């Protein structure tokens, strides 16, 4: 039987000021589930960018936010996408609008819920995929989580004022997820990118669109911002974002060429991991990048469900 690991849940998150009106909540971890968040506060109004995976970790974030502004000031939460590690604390801000893109909101129904994930962590299922879930998610306690869907959606771009600060919401389309959103604060030169950017770890592609991930990096660079808060990992500068874009492009080219030559997906994923894993965390996610490139090359039957992605990733683990 799988037993969730009794590991520490601490990853030393901290609220750090980026400019007069912007803060970031970042973790010292590239492990699954430790997502970054953002705070924009000005003149008695505030916007949160994403919540956390569990109620406890979101409460920890909100306690830190209260050091900047009263929680009543948080009138909106922007969900960068619908993965639980960015949204499962939404219920702790019941008076806030939950804003995301139309495509992101539409993806909600495909997400695994907290009960399902808990069941998986405690299931007696054998095999590498089940063990992977336990290893990476068994440390989190999802009790009490109710998934709160978005209350307001937008398409394209939308400008919102938070006090005196202009905030631009950018609909990045499908890439990491079925619909990703970035939050740009032009006066601060800051972009909260959600999981359109992973820093120090490989990109997870849930959407079957690796080209969408590459385009999203370019869209983020086109804001001319200097500071990028990724969904996971440490802050990035422009060179860091360009590096991620270029790495994804190299993988896309290699995978596209394997697809054209009729190399089976499993073989291509192994070859790509051997060539491009480098030192970034979670090289097994290269399976999802390869599978997305194969889907975009028109290869039918490519994995798309959470479980198929997991099975593919664990095939790349030792
Ligand atoms: Zn995430």
From TrEMBL:
Protein name: Glyoxylase, beta-lactamase superfamily II
Superkingdom as given in the UniProt entry: Bacteria
Alphabetical list of Gene3D superfamilies matching this protein: Ribonuclease Z/Hydroxyacylglutathione hydrolase-like
UniProt domain Metallo-beta-lactamase: residue ranges: 34-232
PANTHER family found in the cross-reference section: ACYL-COENZYME A THIOESTERASE MBLAC2, METALLO-BETA-LACTAMASE DOMAIN-CONTAINING
A Pfam short name: Lactamase_B
InterPro entries: Metallo-B-lactamas, NDM-1-like, RibonucZ/Hydroxyglut_hydro
């Amino acid at each position: 039987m799988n037993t969730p690991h009794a590991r520490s849940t601490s990853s030393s998150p901290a609220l750090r000021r980026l400019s007069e009106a912007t803060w970031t909540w970042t973790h010292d971890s590239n492990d699954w589930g430790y997502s970054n968040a953002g705070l924009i506060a000005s003149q008695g109004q505030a916007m949160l960018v994403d919540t956390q995976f569990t109620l406890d970790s979101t409460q920890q974030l909100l306690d830190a936010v209260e050091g900047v502004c009263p929680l009543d000031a948080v009138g909106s939460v922007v969900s960068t996408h619908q993965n639980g590690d960015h949204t499962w604390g939404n219920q702790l801000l019941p008076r806030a609008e939950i804003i995301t893109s139309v495509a992101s909101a539409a993806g909600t129904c495909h997400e695994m819920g907290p009960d399902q994930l808990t069941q998986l962590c405690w299931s007696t299922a054998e095999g590498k995929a089940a063990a992977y879930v336990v290893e990476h998610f068994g440390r989190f306690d999802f009790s009490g989580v109710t998934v709160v869907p978005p209350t307001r959606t937008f398409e394209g771009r939308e400008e919102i004022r938070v006090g005196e600060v202009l905030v631009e919401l950018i609909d990045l389309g499908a890439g990491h997820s079925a619909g990703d959103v970035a939050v740009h604060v032009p006066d601060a030169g800051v972009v909260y990118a959600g999981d359109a950017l992973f820093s120090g770890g490989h990109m997870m592609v849930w959407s079957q669109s690796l080209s969408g991930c590459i385009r999203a990096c370019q869209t983020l660079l086109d804001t001319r911002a200097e500071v990028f808060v990724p969904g996971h990992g440490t802050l990035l500068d422009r060179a860091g974002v360009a590096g991620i874009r270029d790495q994804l492009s190299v993988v896309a080219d290699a995978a596209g060429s394997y697809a054209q030559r009729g190399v089976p997906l499993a073989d291509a994923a192994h070859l790509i991991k051997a060539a491009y894993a480098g030192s970034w965390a979670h090289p097994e996610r290269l399976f999802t990048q390869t599978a997305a490139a194969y889907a975009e090359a028109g290869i039918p039957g490519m994995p798309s469900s959470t479980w198929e992605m997991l099975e593919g990733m664990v095939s790349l683990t030792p």
